[in-house]
What we know:
The structure holds two protein chains of two kinds.
Chain A (H helix, E strand, L loop, with lengths): L1 H25 L13 H29 L10 H34 L15 H30 L8 E8 L2 E6 L33 E3 L2 E4 L4 E7 L4 E5 L4 E5 L5 E5 L5 H5 L2 H24 L11 E5 L11 E7 L1 H10 L3 H6 L1
Helix pairs in contact in A: 1-2, 2-3, 3-4
Chain B lengths: L1 H10 L7 H6 L4 H31 L6 H7 L10 H37 L7 H20 L30 H30 L12 H32 L10 E2 L2 E2 L7 H35 L6 H15 L14 H29 L8 H23 L2 H7 L3 H30 L7 H27 L19 H31 L74
Antiparallel strand pairs in B: 1-2
Helix pairs in contact in B: 3-5, 3-6, 3-16, 5-6, 5-7, 5-8, 5-9, 5-14, 6-7, 7-8, 8-9, 8-10, 9-10, 9-12, 9-14, 10-11, 11-12, 12-14, 12-15, 14-15, 15-16
Amino acid sequence: MTAFLIILVIILFGVAVWQMNKVFQLSKSPKSENSEIASNNDNNIQGYLMLAFVFFLYGILAYCFWEWGDVLLPVSASEHGVEIDQLMLTSMILIFLVGIFTQWLLHYFAFVYRGSKEKKALFYAENHRLEFIWTIIPVFVLAGLIIYGLFTWSDIMYVDEDEDPLVVELYAYQFDWRARYAGNDNTLGEANVRLIEGVNQLGVDTSDPNAQDDKVVNELHLPLGRKVLFKMRSQDVLHSAYMPHFRAQMNCVPGMITQFAFTPSITTDDMRMNDDVIEKVEHINQIRTEKNIDLLAKGEEVLEMYEFDYLLLCNKICGSNHFNMQMKIIVESEEDYNTWLAEQATIAETIKK
Amino acid sequence: MSEHANNHDDHGHHHKETFVTKYIFSQDHKMISKQYLITGLFMGIIGIAMSLLFRLQLAWPDHQFTIYEIFLGKWAENGVMDPNVYLSLVTIHGTIMVFFVLTAGLSGTFSNLLIPLQIGARDMASGFLNMVSYWLFFLSSVIMVLSLFVEAGPAAAGWTIYPPLSALPQAMPGSGAGMTLWLVSMAIFIASSLLGSLNYIVTVLNLRTKGMSMTRLPLTIWCFFLTAIIGVVSFPVLLSAALMLIMDRSFGTSFFLSDIYIAGEVLHNQGGSPVLFEHLFWFLGHPEVYIVILPAMGLVSEIMATNARKPIFGYRAMIVSVLAIAFLSTIVWGHHMFISGMNPFLGSVFTFTTLLIAIPSAVKAFNWITTLWKGNLKMNPAMLFSIGFVSTFISGGLTGIILGDSALDINVHDTMFVVAHFHLVMGISALYGLFAGVYHWFPKMFEGRLLNKKLGYIHFWITAIGAYGVFFPMHFIGMAGLPRRYYTNTNFPYFDDLLEINVVISVFAFITAAGQLFFLYNFIHSMFYGKMGGKNPWDSTTLEWTAEVKHIHGNWDGPIPEVHRWSYDYSKLNKDNSDYVLPGQDYIPQHIPLQDNEDELKH
């Protein structure tokens, strides 16, 4: 496919050069007095190219959707994410309509009003009604989008503590993540980087009663359908906790605790059965199989086949391994989650060891 | 004003110019503008070359390239690029393109060239400050380029240099001497920019020729004027941020640092906040994108009217929308920080102000399109780039509606979607503005010589196809969730399928960059061998085309022309609509008095 696109570009480029050459030949006619200023002929050719260009734009748009539509994120795995996707779809439809329409006008006018010595332009300096129309329409459309967007934003960002969300700390450092569960009391113990020592990697205040049952892990497990309130901390530089499948992101700022909450709505197992995900995974495995053939030929270790998992990625430049700072997220049923959590050691137990 | 002009007339041109005063420490705005342009283009070559190196890395992460070893030396042993160097490349690419090419190279070049010529002044208000401004810019460019050669590598914390990453040499090698030089270079750059801007403001306000009221100014001047004002308002804030960062780095203060444990030890810093830096940075950073785009808008408006042989549609609406954009640009910076940890209520406020900017932007886009309507378009290369500008400005601007909406920003923030958005709307658009300006005003810069149009056409079409080829697919990898500034997207499997898109993007990037060679050749060749185009090659109304073709100090050999009309009297018909006002000539230059056979229109 790539090869096809490259060939297409080369052909288009060739056509352009050929057209230029034609211009070059034609402009050598004896009556051209100053060849560096566009002649009627130039206007003609460039006008047609402008018309062709708007179709190129539509073409590249269609091609991208056709060919790469499957790389996009699958359905949202969190409750609020559905709202975001809905807003995204509305905005996208709107900007596509506006974009397609205005690009057409622009390039079509460039084509149809291409100049010639015989033509006259229309002296048309202003029209208050027209200007009013294209001021007031964006005003109303944007007002709608702003209100829609602000309601969505408020729903997401203002966390109702009465809902008794599960409190989990996300702790970022160069270049990995840790998660701290608040334990039975659902309250995180105090922590500060000044208390980091030995196994107490997160600087938890071990004298704080709330800290005793906290559990530090390196894989994030979330129960289905329960609101999770993440409290983000960073040990060294800015990081950003980005969970694209849940439409969730918040920066981790040293010296400050930030937060983000969402309710997971699809388990990892169910997401693996999603048609889009199956297609994407198949595609990725196909790529990996092709790579493995090469690797085998070279006698190197082959890549493992890929199975879908939710990811927590770092999305704020944080140093040399920024590209490789992620943590696996597993969404599972309440029972499975409880079983898993029970197996993890509390801070009190870890320190005693 | 008139006294100033007379002074010049009196002592005329009997100074003996030496090589040094004419070409190096020149105080003549035309020479300074050329100095800005050539320095800017040189920096642009470095910036684009860097982008090619990291595009190579992104498309073929497993491949070893000897070209890395040639350019990066010990940072790319065996042809494998070091991840820190990758970050350096994107950082310096961003810095150079935004500040050195699109701020100094675009605004510096054309403000200097056009402000005195289009308002009818002999030179800038202070030729000396203007010279100092250029040489400070030159110095900062030299320091920035030198920083590429320090032992631990140049700055690598991203062009936004957020602390603590940029403040702590332990966090990454680029935050050592490289970052110090970066900060010093930028501090000098800001001083240069402020000197330049103050000069532009004073010149526009005080040195307009007789009859040149503010509402007769060409839109170019309005845009340069407002750009300068935004610069004066916001650049000092970046300077303060840079100074505080220097203090945090070198003198143990804690403006931006608190509770940090790095490289096995706790730092003493307590009580600062990186979010404060983000506020200070973006208080400049956001207006900065308008500092970049407004001059391009001005150039495009002027070129479009001239080549469409029509007045710009809605002259007053254009001025009002530029004013609105300039004002709003200073109160939207928070949209870069929706998920920085600031209060969500602020996110709501900034969403509101951000989406408001779409309104004047939409007005401008529609006005440009209407300017083309029923025109008699002369498809000169400058015109093509102007049409291209409107196209990329619309495409890039529309995706801004997604990013400006705080709720939607959560999931696309800092992904490649953002990179695609701002490259189209400010990078490519502003570059088109720059190219349009160079093609159009080349004869003004190089004493009547014109650029070759065939090379211009080739240059435009390669760039136009290439730019969309690079940045259109980039939206998709962003919406797939790929973060920006990732050294490779194949280190873990989830993004494996994006690699083929990255290959397409890179191929387009190489083609586009190769296309710029046509421009470079054309530029250098035409400087010496370009065809002469006469005094007013594009049949334009503005004053610069009445000035002497040969560069003289003072611009006009005789008295400065007096202005009698606005700058957009193209294709105006006489009272009985039988012919143009001036028979057989479809434009009326600004210095021609009102004719008996024309109606005076209120614009």
